[in-house]
């Protein structure tokens, strides 16, 4: 089977840093992806880690440790527009976690 | 390049009816995947088509079916609708599908009464 676990909600202050963790059990693991979805919108791709280590894209970074079946998404210099749901996804047919609702407060 | 388009955007049906949803992928993308999103279950994989062949199927009953045409456009059909089928149905396209980056359409919001 395939499952990805992530916290359901996270709240952080504007300008701060927040980390969203994801642990997984997937068959045929090829890497970990992260998607962002605003209320009423479609998921949009943020990042993909095929190998262990840190990938940085602007204010967003993503980390993967295959040995620990663990990854995280790091958002820096939080802005109000970052309030959204964030999904980790992996496995051959791209199974998604249940999503983490991030609320950024002033 | 135009994004993924889905029609219709909103749909209201009654129990027992059937519905067909359409998805046009990004030009050049050969893989189309379908997902059901509900508040309780999150994003659940329905099936994936690649070059007109169903390559993967999620854990949904046979009432859910799909197909892909030679131009990569895809349709999914749900027969004998149930109240629990009310959801946002998302289509995503990709170059190779599967684990590759998926580009999502805006979704079709289906309400079953």
Question: What does it look like?
Answer:
The complex is a heterodimer of chains A (106) and B (113). Chain A is mainly β and 106 residues long. Helices cover 0% and strands 57% of the residues of chain A. In chain A, strands 2, 4, 5, 9, 10 and 11 form a 6-stranded mixed sheet that branches. A 5-stranded antiparallel sheet of chain A has the order 1-3-8-7-6, with no helix packed on it. In chain A, a hairpin with a 4-residue loop joins β9 and β10 (95-96). In chain B, a hairpin with a 3-residue loop joins β4 (31-38) and β5.
Report the strand count of chain A.
11
- Compute the separation of the termini of chain B in Å: 37 Å
Proportion of helical residues of chain A:
under 10%
In N-to-C order, the SSE pattern of chain B is EEEEEEEEEEE
- Biggest sheet overview of chain A: 6 strands, mixed
Q: Summarize model confidence as the mean pLDDT of chain B.
A: 93
What is the chains' assembly state? heterodimer
Q: What is the overall pLDDT average of chain A? A: 92
Count of individual helical segments of chain A:
0
Rounded radius of gyration of chain A (Å): 13 Å
Q: How many helix segments of chain B?
A: 0
Please report which band the strand proportion of chain B falls in: under 5%, 5-15%, 15-25%, 25-35%, 35-45% or over 45%: over 45%
How would the global form of chain B be characterised?
globular
The description of the largest β-sheet of chain B is:
7 strands, mixed
Poorly predicted runs of chain B are: none
Residue stretches of chain A low in confidence (pLDDT < 50, at least 5 long) are none
One letter per element, helices H and strands E, the order of chain A comes to EEEEEEEEEEE
Apparent shape of chain A: globular
Derived structural class of chain A: mainly beta
The count of β-strands of chain B is 11
Question: Concise description?
Answer:
The complex is a heterodimer of chains A (106) and B (113). By secondary structure, chain A is mainly β. In chain A, 0% of the residues lie in helices and 57% in strands.
